[in-house]
């Protein structure tokens, strides 16, 4: 199959492209599209057979549920059995935006896309191209990230093309994604809201709206059984092993020097993903092409936006192992560290 990438810069003037995307989706095909978080791989969310194509193209395990993307409030009513009060408040505060709300599902949502769960994750993206495409399709769009399963999520159309070339007919190119990490997932089915995946809508922001908010134990304890099946899988992994250096920023540069020396003594070529500050301090130890900055230390929005491209930039690099600098775990840092822990397979050095 030939995969086309079409730039969409103006949804009003480019209705023809959006209508073509809508037609492909209605006919059971797949379209990759930009959102404010990462690129999604979409299919008609009410058509189990169309959604089977998503699992196949990504190589995604069938028990890992898909999020349904909607363009407006009536579509939420169509896929949720009921909208709990917590979801009402969160929608009023954050939708459209980088948040997915888990609710009990309506019968027309196929079991095959929820991993057999009686619930469904619903999200309204804050991106003109995404919402115009959903409107053109006229149905809720099931979409996970548009990467090969297990790889870093794509934040550019080129990254989507790298992973899915030949497997899908169309990629809508909306440029680089604003946030760069996937949506915050909040389970709204219980007494208290529970964060299943941290994202750009932070715990602090949720608590301002709801009062108390819990965090799924699986996010902090590797051995806990996660509530959503998909959370157990290895994620965001670069092609060579990654070790995370986490802890006190003031000890970071010394910790990097030591970790680099230990590896170089064993004749390993070390790649680095770190802050500008760390890179300035250790630069001389590593060839330039194996040094990737993700932004200034503490600039969490920039680090979130750059992290997946940084991981992907080592795809074709001549490195045997990677060392990555952690951030603190407050606010957006919780989402960044969640992705880095998974990318490292929980291999980390305490600083
Ligand atoms: P992705 O689409 O790749 O960002 O992954 C979607 C993730 O959303 C899954 O891996 C699950 O962790 C979560 N998810 C989707 N639907 C549900 C649901 N009904 N209940 C709990 N978690 C869900
Ligand atoms: Mg994903």
Tally of discrete structural domains: 2
- Helix tally equals 12
* Mean pLDDT, all residues: 95
State the strand order across the main sheet.
1-8-2-3-7-4-6-5-9-10-11
- How helix-rich are the residues, as a percent range? 25-40%
| Poorly predicted spans | none
The CATH architecture of the largest domain can be named as Alpha-Beta Complex
Please give the largest β-sheet.
11 strands, mixed
CATH class of the largest domain: Alpha Beta
CATH fourth-tier homologous superfamily of the largest domain: DHBP synthase
Cα Rg: 20 Å
What amount of the residues lies in strands?
15-25%
Shape: globular
Distance between the amino and carboxyl termini: 48 Å
- Pattern of helices and strands: EHEEHEHHEEHEHEEEHEHEHEHEHEHE
Structural class category: alpha/beta
Account of the protein in words:
- The protein is α/β, with parallel strands linked by helices and 351 residues long.
- It has two domains: 4-232, DHBP synthase (Alpha-Beta Complex), CATH 3.90.870; 242-350, Rossmann fold (3-Layer(aba) Sandwich).
- The chain contains twelve helices and 16 strands.
- The chain has an eleven-stranded mixed β-sheet, with helices on both faces. Strands 14-13-15-12-16 form a five-stranded parallel β-sheet, with helices on both faces.
- Helix 1 (15-26) packs across helix 5, helix 9 (252-265) packs across helix 10 (276-282) and helix 11 (300-312) packs parallel to helix 12 (332-343).
- Bound molecules: adenosine monophosphate (AMP) and magnesium ion.
Entry summary:
It contains twelve helices and 16 strands. The chain is of the alpha/beta class.
């Amino acid at each position: 199959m030939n995969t086309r990438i079409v730039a969409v810069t103006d949804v009003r003037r480019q209705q023809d492209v959006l209508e073509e995307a809508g037609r492909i989706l209605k006919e059971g095909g797949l379209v990759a599209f930009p959102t404010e978080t990462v690129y999604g791989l979409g299919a008609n969310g009410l058509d189990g057979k169309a959604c089977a194509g998503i699992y196949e193209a990504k190589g995604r395990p069938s028990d890992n549920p898909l999020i349904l993307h909607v363009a407006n409030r009536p579509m939420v009513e169509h896929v949720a059995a009921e909208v709990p009060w917590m979801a009402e408040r969160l929608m009023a505060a954050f939708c459209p935006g980088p948040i997915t709300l888990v609710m009990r599902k309506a019968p027309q949502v196929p079991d095959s896309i929820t991993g057999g769960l009686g619930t469904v994750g619903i999200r309204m993206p804050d991106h003109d191209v995404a919402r115009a495409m959903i409107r053109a399709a006229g149905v809720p769009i099931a979409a996970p990230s548009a990467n090969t399963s297990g790889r870093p999520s794509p934040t550019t159309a080129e990254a989507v093309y790298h992973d899915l070339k030949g497997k899908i007919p169309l990629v809508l190119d909306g440029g680089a994604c604003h946030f760069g990490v996937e949506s915050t997932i909040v389970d709204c089915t219980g007494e208290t809201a529970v964060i299943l995946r941290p994202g750009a809508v932070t715990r602090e922001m949720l608590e301002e709206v709801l009062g108390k908010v819990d965090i799924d134990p699986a996010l902090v304890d590797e051995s806990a059984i996660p509530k959503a099946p998909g959370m157990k899988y290895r994620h965001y992994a670069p092609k060579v092993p990654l070790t995370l250096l986490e802890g006190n920023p003031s000890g970071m540069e010394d910790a990097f020097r030591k970790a680099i020396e230990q590896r170089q003594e064993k004749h390993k070529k070390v790649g680095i993903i770190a802050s500008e500050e760390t890179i300035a301090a250790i630069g001389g130890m590593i060839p330039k092409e194996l040094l990737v900055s993700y932004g200034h230390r503490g600039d969490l929005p920039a680090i979130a936006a750059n992290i997946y491209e940084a991981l992907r930039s080592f795809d074709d690099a001549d490195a045997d192992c990677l060392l990555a600098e952690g951030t603190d775990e407050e606010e957006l840092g919780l989402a960044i560290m969640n992705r880095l822990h998974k990318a490292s397979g929980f291999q980390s050095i305490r600083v």
